[in-house]
Amino acid sequence: MTLVIGTAGAVSCTRNDSDPAAHDLTKSAAPSPVPSKTRTVPRAADLPKHAVTSDKRPTFGAADTMAAGYTGEEFLAGLSKDWKLKLDKPVEQEMPDGKNRTYVNGRGENGMTISAGYVDGENLSSLLCRTGTDESDQSDGFLAACTALDVTGVDHEKASSWLKQAKRETDFLYEKRVAATGNKKEYVVSGVLVSGPVVMVLHRAYDKYSLRILGGAVA
After folding, report:
1. Residues pairing with 85 in the sheet
2. What beta strand segments (E) does 31-123 contain?
3. Got the DSSP string for 69-92?
4. What pTM, to 2 d.p., does this model score?
5. Among 202, 180, 7, CA closest to 86
6. Which of 41, 104, 143, 193 is the most exposed place for a label (fewest CB within 10 A)?
7. DSSP letter at 29?
8. Within 10 A of 115 (CB to CB), how many other CB atoms are there?
9. By the 8 A CB rule, do 213 and 22 touch?
10. Residues with Cβ < 8 Å from 145, sequence gap 6 or more?
């Protein structure tokens, strides 16, 4: 790993609902299924457009390079500086398919965290941003900053509009489920945005939002 990003290094995640690095960031992470080695890439037309309960959430295969040669170095350095995140040194983790991926995790004093990764140790493949639900202004700003990922082909205006809708819908469905079940640890998922070479999806589990941006075009 040769990249240097601010005080740390490079990045890698999976286009998958169960990133090991994601689970390290907070104990309140939503439960995730074990990835299947035979999971196929979903069609964009089959992905949910509006918030759904956890039993209906979409699944994805392994994350792929967002764009050839895109390291995300400048973007991650800016994100960590603007939101006062301390990036850890890159670490390798073995995935369920037996392959290793490189990750960089970051954490701020305000409870905001990121986990980013390279599928091949060089090109950015995914970004996970987590923040609490109790400080809406900061949460909105941080998540919006994450959707501004400077990958060619991503429509940032569309991503900004999608995030506002995704947050409204997940909050509404979360409150509806809590009212129905009395369980404050409900878990809901937004509709999916497909923009250029990435997909974006917002999860809400109790008092945490998790925004996942995953490389690899859908069918």
Report:
1. 108
2. 52-53, 85-87, 91-94, 100-108, 113-118
3. T---HHHHHHHHHHTTEEEPPPEE
4. 0.80
5. 7
6. 41
7. P
8. 27
9. no
10. 79, 82, 83
- Residue 158: CB atoms within 10 A of its CB come to 15
Residue 218 corresponds to which tokens in the numbers above? Answer: 């859908």
Please write the tens of the pLDDT for every residue from 22-78: 433 333 333 343 344 445 666 666 788 999 999 998 887 778 889 988 989 899 999
Burial class (CB in 10 A: 0-12, 13-18, 19+), 22: buried
Alpha helices (H) in the chain, listed in sequence order? 20-25, 73-82, 136-147, 156-181
Contacts of 212 (CB under 8 A, 6+ apart): 17, 19, 126, 127, 128, 200, 201, 202, 203
What is the rounded CA–CA span in Å between residue 144 and residue 162? 10
Cβ(119)–Cβ(63) under 8 Å?
yes
CA distance 62 to 52: 22
Amino acid (one-letter) located at 94: E
Q: Quote the DSSP letter at residue 5.
A: B
